[in-house]
Amino acid sequence: MNASLTHNSYGKHKVRVSKIKRGAADPSRHELIEATVNILLEGDLDEAYTKGENEKVVATDTCKNTIYAIAKDDPFDTIESFGVALAKHFLRQYSHLSQVRVEIRQHNWSRLLDCPHAFHGSDGETPTAEIRFVRDQPVEISGGIDGLVIAKTTESGFANFHRDEYRTLPDTDDRILATSVTAKWQFIDANADFTAAKLAIRDAILRKFIDHYSKSVQQTLMLMGEAALEACDVIDAITLTMPNKHHIQFNLKPFGRENNNDVFVVTDEPAGYIHATVSRDA
Question: Which residues are known catalytic residues?
């Protein structure tokens, strides 16, 4: 049998790093930033696979160590800017690499009772970033949010959908709409204010979720995407994933009670999966 190597990449995944940022005016007032970083490298590495020659292989342990060294040197203002610093380092340091991809998930820490050095954490809603840097091309920077759980208990329905022999779901004009939003957007400006953009997009998504009667998750997704583009002019597209977190009316009649659309079975498996990209018109 003849076979050939058609693509390869490797790196280090799930490297957790934190950094204390001390205030310039008041060093006793700290900020705590924590992230999980994935590094993926591509380049002139075929012979490591085809001949077992490792001279050009930057060890994954070296990738891990680099993350901590750059965390020391870089201001770590945002996960996006830190990802760019990592990507640029790898291509600057290793001439045989052609591309580096950096994926980052931020772990949220908020100040505890205005104490200058104490924080409480929550990983429910996670800021994300992805940086792709191909040699001799502009750096590509994406931001995002994962696990933004939202729900509304009315102003949502689902009716007049396709009928066939396998349909059992009835029409409804009043239901709970609950979802966990994953959003990802591509920056058109590498010097954008990443923090301001993320706040504007998040605010637009949340405001749009509550300001209309939803005929379907699909319709609401489109409206939320349009609102994000209108609120933030440094992105030209946004991809949204909105799985249904189903709340199904429980049958109370065997127990002599009427369900007035107020008691539900909660399930998110199996889940409806709604996904789309909304782009700015050229």
Answer: 12, 60, 246
